């Protein structure tokens, strides 16, 4: 999301350095609006249903492209309830237990993925948003190498299942793309006062 004008006072925004980065900020000093553009949290569910993992295809996606159930958190909602609500809305499944898998970057969309393992029961009925679903045995999972895929990888790995990544465009297996964070990038960009 980018703004050209201040959503508070309507004045133009200007790029200026603030807190170590270039930001779009209001030119009116008495207004003080800054578009921080921080990542938006997204909930994702690794849904375990009858011993299998549920993947769903969004109606707008190409065939063969399946993913986790995801959604945005509502105001005044805990993430645990939010992920259970999304699952109910999109698949009609009831949540029995929720546990955090981890938090993952999704810089491509300026989002932060909060991934949960959700044990679910009930009868599947898809919302209009979803075109189809499939249930995959954990030992047969092949993982896409992006945001929510890394949550699936961590979930499988913690349970001793094989972790196999594939390229979504070619369909071919690829090496594990996960990299440890390189914290040395911080040393050149931050200036500390001592
Ligand atoms: Zn303003």
From TrEMBL:
<keyword id="KW-0460">Magnesium</keyword>
<keyword id="KW-0479">Metal-binding</keyword>
<keyword id="KW-0378">Hydrolase</keyword>
<dbReference type="InterPro" id="IPR000086">
    <property type="entry name" value="NUDIX_hydrolase_dom"/>
</dbReference>
<dbReference type="InterPro" id="IPR015797">
    <property type="entry name" value="NUDIX_hydrolase-like_dom_sf"/>
</dbReference>
<feature type="domain" description="Nudix hydrolase">
    <location>
        <begin position="37"/>
        <end position="158"/>
    </location>
</feature>
<dbReference type="Pfam" id="PF00293">
    <property type="entry name" value="NUDIX"/>
</dbReference>
<protein>
    <submittedName>
        <fullName>NADH pyrophosphatase</fullName>
        <ecNumber>3.6.1.22</ecNumber>
    </submittedName>
</protein>
<dbReference type="GO" id="GO:0016787">
    <property type="term" value="F:hydrolase activity"/>
</dbReference>
<dbReference type="InterPro" id="IPR020084">
    <property type="entry name" value="NUDIX_hydrolase_CS"/>
</dbReference>
<dbReference type="InterPro" id="IPR050241">
    <property type="entry name" value="NAD-cap_RNA_hydrolase_NudC"/>
</dbReference>
């Amino acid at each position: 999301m980018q703004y050209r004008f201040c959503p508070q006072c309507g004045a133009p925004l200007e790029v200026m350095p603030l807190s170590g980065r270039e930001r779009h900020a209001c030119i009116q000093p008495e207004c003080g609006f800054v578009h921080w553009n921080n990542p938006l949290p997204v909930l994702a569910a690794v849904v375990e249903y009858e011993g299998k993992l549920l993947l769903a295809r969004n109606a707008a996606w190409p065939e063969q492209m399946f993913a986790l159930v995801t959604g945005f958190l509502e105001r005044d909602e805990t993430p645990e309830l939010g992920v259970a609500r999304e699952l109910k809305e999109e698949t009609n499944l009831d949540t029995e237990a929720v546990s955090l898998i981890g938090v993952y970057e999704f810089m491509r969309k300026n989002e932060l993925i909060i991934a949960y393992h959700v044990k679910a029961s009930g009868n599947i009925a898809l919302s209009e948003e979803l075109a189809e679903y499939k249930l995959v045995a954990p030992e047969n999972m092949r993982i896409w190498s992006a945001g929510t895929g890394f949550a699936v990888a961590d979930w499988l790995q913690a349970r001793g299942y094989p972790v196999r990544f594939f390229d979504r465009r070619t369909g071919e297996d690829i090496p594990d793309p996960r990299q440890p964070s390189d914290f040395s990038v911080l040393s050149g960009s931050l200036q500390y006062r001592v």
